[in-house]
Amino acid sequence: MIAPLPASGASRVRAHGEDAEEAMAEGTTVDHLTETYQEHYRSLLGLAALLLDDPASCEDVVQEAFIRVHSARRRVRSREKTLAYLRQTVVNLSRSTLRRRILGLKLLTKPMPDMASAEEGAYEQLERADLIQAMRGLQRRQREVLVLRYFADMSEAEVARTLGISAGSVKAYGSRGIAALRVAMEATR
């Protein structure tokens, strides 16, 4: 059976344990990372340059690698492993950068949806305003039938049920409404 240590011995063991932990984490101090940055920044930049093609991305990758090593410094336990961890991080970040570029290129090669130019958009807005004005000039039933049929995308039967009129009336109001709209729109041009 192990006898418990006296209080002064326990604090000595704890202090010794803390010293051992500090010694294990020696390679991860901020001072060591600063020294590593000063000594190896250029070589890490060269490594990134071999993997990437533009200097700005290389600098971003190396700086991000140092940030990540600084954030994970508790996991890196020795000076020798710090540089290896940095190199591996530069390689991984370079790969990620290339993957994002490739994905971006794939997306760029897809045709963009047809978009109206600013002039076309303005013209469409004017036409829409003219259409709304022309719709306001229709008889109430014609306007209701056209709105339900063409804007709400209802079938003739659905419009008839909604308005409580026959399908024949829906056709008649729709036909007359379109004719009146055509005349009104021609007058605005």
Automatic annotation (TrEMBL):
Return the annotated region ranges for Disordered: 1-23
Name of the molecule in the record: RNA polymerase sigma-70 factor, sigma-E family
Query: In this protein, which residues make up the domain named RNA polymerase sigma factor 70 region 4 type?
Result: 130-181
Q: Tell me the protein family, please.
A: Belongs to the sigma-70 factor family. ECF subfamily.
Question: Can you give the residue ranges of the RNA polymerase sigma-70 region domain?
Answer: 37-101
Classification via NCBIfam families: SigE-fam_strep (TIGR02983), sigma70-ECF (TIGR02937)
GO MF term list: DNA binding; sigma factor activity
List the InterPro entries hit by this protein, alphabetically: RNA_pol_sigma-70-like (IPR039425), RNA_pol_sigma-70_dom (IPR014284), RNA_pol_sigma-E_actinobac (IPR014325), RNA_pol_sigma70_r2 (IPR007627), RNA_pol_sigma70_r4_t2 (IPR013249), RNA_pol_sigma_r2 (IPR013325), RNA_pol_sigma_r3/r4-like (IPR013324), WH-like_DNA-bd_sf (IPR036388)
What are the boundaries of the signal sequence? Answer: none
Q: Which keywords belong to this entry? A: DNA-binding, Sigma factor, Transcription, Transcription regulation
Q: SUPFAM superfamilies attached here?
A: Sigma2 domain of RNA polymerase sigma factors, Sigma3 and sigma4 domains of RNA polymerase sigma factors
GO terms under biological process = DNA-templated transcription initiation
Q: Name one Pfam family in it.
A: Sigma70_r4_2
